């Protein structure tokens, strides 16, 4: 290495999230020994800089032959190493330790290599590490040998094996792929698997980054289940090396959830009383709706109900556009249309043009500037799925949006199709369970959920003919109404004269915040703009 290119320090890697794998050199360039990410030196050419900054991971083939052996310097037995498929191998003339990772289908897709570097241990990835699950998760598909009592999560593979070994490899222990910095990403992606355990113990390193990461990770785990294990030494392996395996085991079992479901003293709830969630974060786009509710707020479940073809999806897109313009982060799950159609609808609102009717959308004037203005802020997240889906899968997606992407409001269009694909189930019961889980997500994350629900067929005049909606018309379980903070119906006579067909009457059926209910705004659909808007007579008089 030349005098002008000396190793200077280690830093966190912005690509893989490791806390100390990015080596910084005196000429200004940096290289991550974990994922092969490279930061160019200021003197390097633009051509090189472009290639070095590529977000695509450097992929190498997986190592096929891994020798399972005892790790004597770590006191990891051969039995434990073999159990976790951890071992030694040769790569490019170097002796490396290999931890193999699987994807959600259990297929080996990446390997985390541990080797000696010039300044101590270094790490490197081979394969595709973007969509791996927690290391060791495949060993505990359902639960451990003694049931689903608790699971332990560590920062690294060595600590995971250390904890598993002191417990006879009988209780679930998994590791984060890229250290404490990756905790929230991978915990959010595997919440369904974690939620099966009565207790989830975070046993991170006892240094400051590990402590902070554990405290932050607690926030996305199921309330009443997550616990932090505080160690007297730096990590679990140090306790194993010191012959403190029994003490380590005791600390794990004694770890208590930090957010228990318990009765609280009112004197301790000042911050809860005064938190921002109690006030609106932005006004609603329609004056009477805003007046009756006193604005849109988070931590609410809002139900929009109407008959088929009334314009519920159009209303949802108008709300999504309004929230984006007010700088809120929006999640959109439309199960009866493609993500392209959803984006067309929202972008059309920005342009005051029904883009779905355009034969050559790319030729629409101002399309790209409008797209960049509306979506360039990266505040809209869409779920690419069409048709029915498992309710638990839906809950996972919403929870991920709320926790990992920081979404303020999720629009789900619509609930009925989620249930429709389930075979041999009681629809009422299925809706009840799904709504309860949606409410739990609202309470645990603070996200707002706007839920679209269909109506049952009334006796007499149909909803498609403009029949007034009542709470008894909600399809399925009464849980929809009970668990919603705000319930809004949309009424439109699709069989009337042209004026009636273009008019949508909004009505508040339930309003937990203020109690005000009844008919509110009338919206007019403009065929030329594709917009639902308040008639000018509302502002200037009839």
Description:
This protein is α/β, with parallel strands linked by helices and 542 residues long. The protein has helices at residues 46-52, 78-83, 157-166, 183-189, 191-194, 208-217, 236-241, 245-254, 270-274, 287-293, 312-325, 339-351, 367-375, 391-404, 415-420, 427-445, 479-483, 498-501, 536-540, and strands spanning 7-11, 22-25, 30-32, 38-39, 86-91, 94-102, 108-117, 120-127, 150-154, 173-175, 199-203, 226-228, 301-306, 330-334, 380-382, 409-413, 448-453, 486-491, 503-511, 518-526, 531-533. The chain is built from 19 helices and 21 strands. The strands form four sheets. It has a nine-stranded mixed β-sheet with strand order 15-14-16-17-13-18-19-20-21, with helices on both faces. A four-stranded antiparallel β-sheet has the order 1-2-3-4, with no helix packed on it. Strand 20 and strand 21 (531-533) form a beta hairpin. Helix 4 (183-189) runs antiparallel to helix 14 (391-404), helix 11 crosses helix 12 (339-351) and helix 14 runs parallel beside helix 16 (427-445).
- Main sheet overview: 9 strands, mixed
Chain-averaged pLDDT: 82
Q: Radius of gyration, Cα only, in angstroms?
A: 27 Å
Distance between the termini: 82 Å
Helix content percent band:
25-40%
CATH class of the largest domain: Alpha Beta
- Proportion of beta-strand residues: 15-25%
In CATH, the homologous superfamily of the largest domain goes by the name P-loop containing nucleotide triphosphate hydrolases
**How is the largest sheet built, in terms of strand order?**
15-14-16-17-13-18-19-20-21
Second rung of CATH, namely the architecture of the largest domain: 3-Layer(aba) Sandwich
Number of strands: 21
């Amino acid at each position: 290495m030349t005098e002008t290119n000396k190793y200077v320090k280690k830093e966190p890697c912005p690509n893989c999230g490791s806390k100390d794998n990015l080596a910084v050199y005196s000429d200004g360039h940096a290289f991550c020994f974990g994922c092969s990410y490279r930061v160019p030196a200021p003197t390097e050419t633009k051509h090189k800089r472009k290639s070095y900054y590529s977000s695509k991971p450097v992929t190498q083939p997986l190592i096929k032959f891994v020798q399972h052996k005892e790790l004597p310097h770590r006191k990891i037995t051969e039995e434990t190493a073999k159990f976790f498929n951890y071992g030694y191998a040769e790569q490019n003339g170097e002796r490396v330790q290999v931890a193999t990772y699987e994807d959600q289908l259990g297929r080996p897709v990446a390997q985390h290599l541990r080797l000696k570097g010039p300044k101590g241990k270094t790490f490197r990835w081979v394969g595709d590490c973007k969509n791996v699950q927690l290391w060791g998760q495949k060993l505990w598909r359902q639960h451990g040998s003694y049931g689903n009592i608790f699971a332990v999560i560590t920062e690294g593979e060595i600590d995971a094996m250390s904890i598993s070994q002191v417990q006879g490899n009988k209780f679930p222990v998994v590791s984060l792929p890229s250290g404490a910095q990756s905790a929230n990403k991978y915990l959010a992606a595997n919440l369904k698997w974690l939620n099966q355990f009565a207790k989830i113990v975070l046993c991170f390193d006892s240094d400051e980054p590990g402590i902070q990461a554990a405290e932050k990770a607690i926030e996305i785990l199921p309330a009443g289940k997550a616990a932090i294990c505080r160690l007297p030494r730096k990590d679990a392996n140090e306790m194993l090396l010191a012959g403190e395996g029994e003490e380590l085991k005791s600390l794990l079992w004694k770890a208590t959830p930090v957010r228990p479901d318990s009765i609280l003293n009112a004197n301790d709830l000042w911050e809860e009383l005064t938190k921002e969630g109690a006030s609106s974060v932005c006004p609603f786009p329609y004056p009477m709706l805003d007046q009756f509710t006193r604005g849109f707020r988070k931590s609410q479940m809002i139900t929009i109900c109407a008959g088929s073809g009334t314009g519920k999806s159009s209303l949802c897109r108008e709300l999504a556009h309004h929230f984006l313009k007010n700088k809120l982060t929006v999640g959109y799950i439309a199960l009866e249309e493609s993500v392209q159609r959803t984006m067309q609808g929202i972008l059309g609102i920005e342009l005051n043009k029904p883009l779905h009717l355009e034969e050559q959308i790319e030729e629409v004037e101002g399309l790209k500037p409008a797209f960049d203005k509306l979506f360039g802020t990266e505040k809209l997240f869409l779920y690419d799925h069409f048709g029915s889906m498992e309710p638990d899968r839906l809950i996972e997606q919403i929870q991920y949006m709320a926790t990992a992407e920081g979404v303020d409001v999720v629009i789900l269009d619509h609930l009925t199709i989620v249930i429709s694909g389930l075979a041999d189930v009681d629809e009422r019961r299925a809706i009840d369970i799904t709504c309860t889980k949606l409410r739990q997500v609202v309470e645990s994350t603070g996200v707002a959920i706007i839920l679209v629900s269909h109506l049952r067929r009334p006796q007499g005049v149909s909803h498609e003919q403009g029949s007034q909606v009542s709470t008894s018309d909600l399809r399925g379980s009464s849980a929809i109404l009970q668990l919603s903070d705000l319930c809004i119906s949309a009424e439109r006579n699709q069989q009337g004269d042209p004026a009636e067909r273009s008019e949508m009457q909004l009505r508040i059926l339930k309003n937990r915040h203020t109690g005000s209910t009844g008919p509110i705004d009338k919206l007019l659909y403009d065929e030329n703009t594709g917009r639902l808007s308040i008639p000018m007579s509302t502002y200037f008089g009839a």
